[in-house]
Design brief:
Dehydroquinate synthase-like, alpha domain; 7-stranded mixed sheet; 14 helices; 11 strands; globular; binds adenosine-5'-diphosphate; binds zinc ion
Length: about 375
């Protein structure tokens, strides 16, 4: 078991990682279940997959304390993160009579967590919520740090709020049902932590990646705990990304978002897969600038390919050119006027924010990469 505190003045919370936590939900989340009782069910939000797979386990756990869950279930996928669904969820919470002392439970991947967190941030100007992340990606990244959002016509995650959870309970056992492709996509964000700030962890992942992907308990818990520890430290130091620190978590994401946009944010390329490609591009571009060696860039690419993640954009079958990808980047949330901060590498295990990157040079670099 690992308990990682996220130190935020007045809003500290713990991230607990332990096999079987879902079964022991009533003990693990006891302080946040206080207001509920036989006449007052606990609000749970899930998608149809996590509801089908885990609602019985939740019911059983709650039953030991005479509690019941009331479920709000959404269809899986990004389409749940809409204005319409936000309205329905907020109305549901209000109809249940949630108060600012209550906590809503989010059982699912990043989609459920983002939607619930945002709904809780605006309902009665802020009710509490507990994250029960069920994808590797949500466990190591989106469930911690308080970024919540929905998607709109103008883009993904453009409407949202910072709203920290009261508790994050990570049960690695739920990953046994996660499709392998989703597992690999989450693993891309794990590799990200190694590449951005911990060379020793990156080397450990090179050796132990297969064990993590096979859900071997010790390796999996170490990978999750190390990732969360780094995220917790970064979030505590720069909660709202006002310094460059939290921005380091965006390694691979500027290139990645452009690729996601070009592939229509579809199943063709999952977020984690786009981040994997984005990290290879960031490493290669850093090598092009002479900041890391070509060998180090190749090492990053090899680690990503070895995890079964896409590592070469020439394999995507895109018909666009580099300029089109750069055009997508200009619409990035992180764009500052006409320039864009790029996350590059000074070493494997040391990312930094470069503000002197010429977008025309990025386009030329991408033309080369697209050609293979
Ligand atoms: P992410 O966490 O990567 O943002 P989503 O919330 O979109 O992703 O979840 C990805 C997919 O995985 C969805 O179809 C979701 O229903 C499914 N899913 C989530 N958790 C599990 C699980 N533990 N077992 C099986 N499928 C899951
Ligand atoms: Zn990401």
């Amino acid at each position: 078991m690992a308990v990682i505190p996220v130190a935020l003045a007045g809003r500290d919370y713990d991230v607990v990682i332990e096999e079987g936590l879902l079964e022991r939900l009533t003990q693990a989340a006891a302080p946040f279940l206080k207001g509920y009782g036989p006449q007052r069910p606990v609000p749970f939000v899930a998608d149809t997959n996590t509801h089908r797979l885990y609602s019985r386990q939740v019911a059983k756990a709650l039953g030991t304390e005479g509690l019941e869950a009331d479920w709000f279930v959404v269809e899986p996928g990004e389409d749940a993160k809409t204005w319409g669904m936000l309205e329905r969820l907020c109305d549901w919470l209000l109809a249940l009579g949630v108060t600012r002392k209550d906590h809503v439970f989010a059982l699912g991947g990043g989609v459920v967590g983002d939607l619930v967190g945002f709904a809780c941030s605006i309902t009665k100007r802020g009710v509490g919520f507990v994250q029960l992340p069920t994808t590797l990606l949500a466990q190591v990244d989106s469930s911690v740090g308080g970024k919540t959002a929905i998607n709109t016509r103008a883009g993904k995650n453009l409407i949202g709020a910072f709203h920290q959870p009261a508790l994050v309970l990570i049960d690695p056992l739920v990953l046994t049902t996660l499709p392998d492709r989703e597992m690999r996509a989450g693993f891309a964000e794990v590799l990200k932590y190694g590449l951005l700030g911990d060379a020793a962890f990156f080397a450990w992942l090179e050796a132990n990646g297969p064990a993590v992907l096979a859900r071997e308990p010790a390796a999996l818990e170490h990978a999750i705990a190390t990732s969360i520890a780094m995220k917790a430290q970064i979030v505590a130091a720069d909660e709202r990304e006002t310094q460059d620190l939290r921005a380091l978590l965006n390694l691979g994401h500027t290139f990645g978002h452009a690729l996601e946009a070009e592939t229509g944010f579809s199943d063709r390329l999952l977020h984690g897969e786009a981040v994997a490609l984005g990290m290879v591009l960031a490493a290669k571009y850093s090598a092009r600038r002479g900041e890391i060696s070509a060998e180090d860039a190749a090492r990053a690419e090899t680690a990503i390919a070895a995890a079964g993640l896409p590592a070469r954009i020439s394999d995507l079958g895109l018909t666009c050119d580099g300029a089109a990808l750069v055009d997508h980047m200009r619409h990035d949330k992180k764009a500052e006027g006409t320039t864009l901060p790029f996350l590059l590498l000074r070493a494997l295990g040391e990312a930094y924010v470069a503000r002197d990157v010429d977008l025309a040079d990025i386009a030329a670099f991408l033309d080369g990469e697209l050609a293979g």
